[in-house]
Amino acid sequence: MERSELEFATPDTVRLAIRENRWQGVTKRLALGYHQANVTIVPKALAFDFMRFCFNNPKPLPLLDVCEPGNPAPPRAAPNADLRTDVGGYVILRDGKVAERVPSLEKHWRDDHVAFLTGCNLSLDRILLESRIPLPHLVDDQAFPAQFRSSILCRPAGPFQGPLVVSLRPVFEELVIPLVELTSRFPLSHGAPVHIGDPQKIGIEDLQQVHWGRPNEILPGQIPMFWACGITVQAVALASKIPEIIVHAPGHMFVTDLLVRELSVTPTV
Amino acid sequence: MERSELEFATPDTVRLAIRENRWQGVTKRLALGYHQANVTIVPKALAFDFMRFCFNNPKPLPLLDVCEPGNPAPPRAAPNADLRTDVGGYVILRDGKVAERVPSLEKHWRDDHVAFLTGCNLSLDRILLESRIPLPHLVDDQAFPAQFRSSILCRPAGPFQGPLVVSLRPVFEELVIPLVELTSRFPLSHGAPVHIGDPQKIGIEDLQQVHWGRPNEILPGQIPMFWACGITVQAVALASKIPEIIVHAPGHMFVTDLLVRELSVTPTV
Fold first, then answer.
1. CA A7, CA A130: separation in Å to the nearest integer?
2. What pLDDT, on a 0 to 100 scale, did the predictor assign at position A263?
3. Pseudo-torsion of CA B16, B17, B22, B24, nearest 10°?
4. Measured distance CA(A189)–CA(A121) in Å, rounded
5. How would you classify residue A265: left for phi > 0, otherwise alpha for psi between -120 and 50, otherwise beta?
6. Distance between CA atoms of B104 and B96, rounded to whole angstroms?
7. Contact B187 A266 (CB under 8 A)
8. Where does residue A206 rank: exposed (0-12), middle (13-18), buried (19+ CB within 10 A)?
9. Facing residue for A51 by CB, picked from B48, B68, B184
10. 3-state DSSP call for residue A66?
């Protein structure tokens, strides 16, 4: 299946293609204009602490939806979807280690699992394309934003603590201010950047040594801009040695029914 | 102590006056420009459900802060305050009934109590005064917005369910649109109104039969405007027969260190 077939598809068409394994790639540029979400699943005993962790860290973890315990359908973001099958893959982390990578959660979902959806930068792909802002991942079909553990620490909640992960976009100077203005209007998709310029100031020594994603070339005249990133959950799960936490496979987001434009003005969806 | 002494006081000055019983009135027009908050305290076993209830109902319950279990200091909204003593009074509800009204929580606070702060209309008093929008409670020193149980239902979460409570402001016609524009920019203070005009359309038969607050006279040429109200928590506690829930005494809000102007652009504070 070609990406172009799903670029302007509805969210349920994209989710069905993922569920039936007709689409196995990352979700960038799919269902343009709809919120894509990071998925985090924790046992109910950790759910209040994780929800407070999201509340304490709205830049990396802007809450889009919270499921009822045991129910894999997001009540507001996509009530007809099934998080067990409608995401391209999951990573199961146990006690601070990657325990398993699985294509779906059909055999792993339990009645005490609580799923959270948090916002994602890829939700802004349509707005960036329409605004003619040629970020690398939108120009080069193979490119994907590079992601790094930074030296910035999240505000802890219960057992959850660890570093903020940031995503890098190299940007020509004349687009720096417009991009701050534009992204600050979309707090549910990580909002304004957390840092612009020298990577060492946020603890990143080498932009070629990426922790997730792919290295981005910095062209002459380009400035590195860094946004808070949802992969923060994975870094925090590793640092905090959380007994069990399940996250979507990087780049394989959950495509919601929520329109980016519609929700950007509300406080908590 | 005169209200005028506290109108432009800092939040900690107001909280100290309340703690030392030098101020025993309602908090309208105090520490103008700072967020005032509804306080809700539940046992830890209900905390995740209540936090989801706030998330599901951001108009009546926009989250300003969540305390660590057992800790009466709001970590972001006023880390040096003590919710046990810095609020003018509390109502303890048990099993759907008002069990007790107490001046402070010094003898009632437990290690498993979790406190939540949610936004309040009174936070906008300064902006309304500066915008020269003469709402009745700002013109008449004795007036306080009337509040009603409406026929609109909240989105449930766990055991929490019940009616949306609305507050009434009678508004001259030429101010209706400006007030929708202005309040929609402050989602953490209940945002835009939920209804304008005929009270019967939201289940209110008689504007003189108020459920909380004081009746407001509707002058010729005025239109009733209704905003979601934080007293929703009390109505929901009664309707849901929650085993234990503690709320601030109506009108006696907690005065936070959060500036209204500063936080209105962030998604979840």
1. 14
2. 58
3. -110
4. 5
5. alpha
6. 21
7. yes
8. exposed
9. B48
10. strand
CB burial string B122-132: b at 16+ within 10 A, e below: bbbbbbbbeee
CA distance A98 to A249: 11
Its pTM stands at 0.92
Which amino acid would we find at residue A186?
Answer: F
What 8-state DSSP symbol labels residue B142? T
What distance in Å separates the CA atoms of residue A44 and residue A46, rounded to the nearest whole number?
A: 5
Q: CA A124 to CA B250: how far, in whole Å? A: 42
Burial class (CB in 10 A: 0-12, 13-18, 19+), A208: exposed
Residue A3: pLDDT above 50?
A: yes
Give, for B47, the enclosing helix (H) or strand (E).
helix B47-56
For residue B229, report the phi and psi dihedrals to the nearest 5 degrees.
-130, 145
Q: Most B CBs within 10 Å: which of A46, A48, A118, A123, as the mutation test of the B interface?
A: A48
- B6: buried, middle or exposed (CB in 10 Å: 19+, 13-18, 0-12)? buried
Chain B residues bordering chain A (beta-carbon distance below 8 Å) = 44, 47-48, 51-52, 54-56, 58, 62-63, 66, 68, 75-76, 157, 184, 187-188, 191, 265-269
Total residue length of chain B: 269
CB B164 within 8 A of CB B228: yes
Q: How many CA atoms lie within 13 A of A33 on its CB side?
A: 10
| Residue positions counted in chain A | 269
State which H helix or E strand residue A43 sits in: strand A34-43
Backbone angles phi, psi at A211, to 5 degrees: -95, -30
Rg (C-alpha) for chain B, rounded Å, is 17
**pLDDT tens column, B52-72:** 999 999 999 999 999 999 999
**Residue B164: other Cβ atoms inside 10 A:** 25
What are A252's two structure tokens?
């394989």
Contacts 24+ apart (CB under 8 A), A172-180: A172/A219, A172/A221, A172/A222, A172/A223, A173/A221, A173/A222, A173/A223, A175/A133, A176/A223, A176/A225, A178/A131, A178/A133, A179/A133, A179/A225
Identity of the residue in A58, A62, A266 whose CB atom sits nearest the CB atom of B58: A266
Percent of chain B with pLDDT strictly greater than 90? 83
How far apart CA A176 and CA A7 sit, in angstroms, is: 27
Is residue A47 exposed (0-12), middle (13-18) or buried (19+ Cβ within 10 Å)?
buried
- Among chain B residues, the shortest Cα distance to A114 is held by B48
Per-residue burial over B89-102, b = 16 or more CB atoms within 10 Å of its CB, e = otherwise: bbbbbeeeeeeeee
3-state secondary structure of A173: helix
- In this predicted model, what pLDDT tens digit does every residue of B206-223 receive, in sequence order? 999 999 988 888 999 999
